[in-house]
Amino acid sequence: MGLRTRIIIFVVVAFCAVNLFLCFYITHQVKVLELKKLRVQINKSTYLMRIINTLPLYNVDRESLKMNMETFFDDENMKRLTIHDSEVNININLERQLPLGGTDIKKSFVIDYKGLKLGRLTVVYSTGLIEKKLAKFQTRMLEVTLFVILVIAVVLAFSINIITKPLGRLARITSEIAAGNFDNEIEQTDVGEVGTLSRNFVRMRDTVKEKKEEISRINTMLEGDIQQKNMQGRKILYQRMLISSVNTFFQQSMTAQSIQEIAEIFIPIAQGVVPGPYCFVGQVCDTENNLKILALSDQVEKQCPMFDEAVINHGFRQPISGRLVEAIANKAPVISNNVSLNSEFYFLSKEHLPVETIMALPMLYGKDVFGLAVFAGKEGGYTPEDQEVATMMIMVLVEALTLRGRQEEKQQLEKTMVQSEKMVSVGKLAAGMVNEMNGPLDEIRRAAQMIRNSVEKPGPESLAAADKNSLSFDRLGRYLQDQSVFNNLNLIMEACKKASGIVSNMLSFSGNTKVDFVVEDLSLLLDESLELASSEYSLEQDFHFDAIQIMKDYDPDLPKVKCRGSELKQVFFNILSNGAYAMAGHTDSPCPTFFMRTYGKEGQVCVEIIDNGPGMPENIRRRVFEPFFSTRSDKEDAGLGLSVSYFIITENYNGTIEVESAPGEGTCFRIFLPI
After folding, report:
1. Residue ranges of the Histidine kinase domain (predicted)?
2. Are residues 446 and 549 in the same domain?
C-alpha cells in the first residue's frame, strides 16, 4: 500500500470518526432537550387538567368533562387520557395510535374538591413522534456528513497525488535498482528537495552499477575455478562411493539364496549412488516385451499396492513397450527426463507413481540381455554421469545373478538326479510288488463279501445247513448286527479298496499303462479336476470344498498338448486335495483361495496352482515329492500322491514340476510340459 493511499485513508477515517461522533452527539443533545420540553409540557398540562376538570367532575357535568378532555387531547404527543369516577359512573377514555418504539410517560392523580375525592385522572404521553423526528434528523445529518467526506476525499486524493507523484516515481526507480535494473533514466527536472533527491539517486545508481560490474567480473573468474574443483571432487566422491557400494553388494550377495534376494540386496545399494526413489529389476522372459519382476524399491511397494511381496514371489510379469523394448533390443541405455512426453512409460503413470524422470539400462551378459534395471524419480533429470555409475553397478549385478544362476542350476540338477534315482527305485519296487499284493487283497475282499452274502441273502445250501442245526437266519442276522459284525466286514472291504488304490498308484511308477496320448486342453482338464475335487467324499468330510474361492487366469491362446487326460487330472487332483487339506487347518486366512494360471513359455506350457494356506518350511518343501512322505497325522495317507505326480510329469511327459513355499506365504506348484 503506497504512501498516498495510507495518507488518504488515515485522513478520511479520522474525519469520518469526528463527524460521526459529532452527529451522534448533537442528535443525543437534541433528544435530551426535546424530552425535557416534553416533561415540562406534561407537568403544565396535568396541572391545568386538574384545575379545569374539578368543578365539572364535582357537578357531574359529563359534556364539559368530555369537551375539556378533547381540548387537551389535541396534543400530538398524548397517547391516552382517562377520567374515572366509580361513584357517579363516569368513565371517559380517549386514546390514539402513535409510532412504535417510543417510551410511555404516565401521570395519574386523584382530583379532589374541598377535601372530597371526586375521581382519578390518568394521562399517558409517548416519545414515539419525538424519536421519529430525531431519526429523520440524524439521517439527514449522516447524509450531509457522507457527502462532505466524499468531497474531502476527492480533493485530498487529488492534492496528495500532485504532491507525492515525484516521490512515487523515485520509489519505483529505487525498487528497480534494488532488483538490479540500472538502465532506467531518472528525471532531474524537479525543484527543491525532490530535485536534490533525484540528483543524489543518479549519482548513487552510477556508483552501484560500476561496483556491480566489477563484482560480476570477479565472480565469473571464481565460479570457473570452483566449478572445476567441484567436478574433480564429485568424480573422486563417486569413485569412492562406487567402490564401497560394489564391495558391500558382493559381500551381501554371497549369502543370498536366490536371484530375487540378490536383486533385493542390489536395489538399496544402487540407490545410494544412483539418485531416485523408484527402482525395479526385471528378468527378460517369454518374449522381449515382458519382464519378470525380481525386486522393487520400498517407495514403489508403498505407492503401488498391486506390487506386493506375494505377487513378486509368484513371478509377476510386467509388459513393456516403446523405448524400453528398444533398450533391450539395441542393448543401449535409455534416459528420459520428461516422462509425460513418452507414451511407452504408461505402466508407470502418475496414478501410481509421481514419475517425471526415468533411466533404463539393459543387463548384458556377453551378447545376451539378461534383464532390465530401471531407475526413476530423480529431481532435475538423469545425467551421463548417472548412466556411467549405473552401468558399472549393473555389470556387478549381472555377474552376481549369473553366478547364483549357475549354482541354482547345479543344485537343481543334483536334486533332479537324486529324485530320478528315487523314482526309478520305487518303480522297480512297484513293478515287483503289484502282482504279489493284488491277489491277496482280492481274496480278502471276496471272502468278506461272501460272508456277508451268506447271511443277508442265504442260498439253498445255507438254508439246509441252518435247518439241520436248528438255526434261525433272522435271529442270526440280528445277532451279527448287534455285534457290529457287518460293520467290521464293511471296514475290511473298505481297507482292501484303499490298499488296492495304493497298489494302483505304485503301478504308475512302472509306466506300464496302455492308454495312448491324445490332444487335450489343459484349461478343460483343470476345470474337470476341480469338479472331481469338489465332489470327493474324503475332502468333504474334513473341509467343504465349496468354501474355497477359485480364481482363474487361463491363457486363451494356449496351445493344446498331447497327453493322457486321466494322468494329468490325477496330478491336478493330488495338488488340489493337498492344498485343500492344508487350508482346512489354516485359520489365519479368512478366505481360502486357489489361484490357477496357464501360460506359454519358450516352447512349453506352464500350469500354476497357488493356494494361500499356511505354506511349508524348507525341510518339508524339499521332501514333498519323496515316496511315502506325509505330514498328515491321520496315518491313512500313504504319502504317494505327489511322488506319483512327479513321476507322471517327469517320466511320462519329459516335463518338470516344482514347488515354491514358505511359512505364512502359501504354496505354488508349477508344472512345465513340452508342446
Report:
1. 432-675
2. no
Whether 226 maps to a domain, the answer reads: no
Rounded Cα distance between 553 and 541, Å, is 29
Helices marked H in 179-191: none
More confident: 177 or 267 = 267
- Whether the CB-CB separation of 54 and 109 falls below 8 Å is answered with no
The number of angstroms, rounded, from the C-alpha of 517 to the middle of its chain's C-alpha atoms is 51
Structural domain for 288, as ranges: 256-382
Query: 523: buried, middle or exposed (CB in 10 Å: 19+, 13-18, 0-12)?
Result: middle
Q: Which of 624, 635, 627 is nearest to 498 (CA)?
A: 635
| Chain centroid offset of residue 173 CA | 53
Same domain, 496 and 524: no
pLDDT of residue 381: 85
Unique residue bearing C-alpha cell 416519545 = 127
First to last CA, the chain: 83
CB of 644 closer than 8 Å to CB of 635: no
**Is residue 102 assigned to a domain?**
yes
Same domain, 519 and 664: yes
Q: pLDDT by residue (tens digit) across 53-63?
A: 788 877 777 88
Total domains in the chain come to 4
Most confident of the ranges 137-151, 453-467, 631-645: 137-151
CATH code at 122? 3.30.450
pLDDT at 119: 83
Same domain, residue pair 571 and 638: yes
Residues near 631 by Cβ (< 8 Å), separated by ≥ 6? 620
CB 570 within 8 A of CB 664: no
Distance CA 51, CA 57 (A): 10
Chain CA centroid to CA 112, Å: 95
Judgement on whether residues 522 and 489 belong to the same structural domain of the protein: no
Q: Is the pTM value of this prediction over 0.90?
A: no
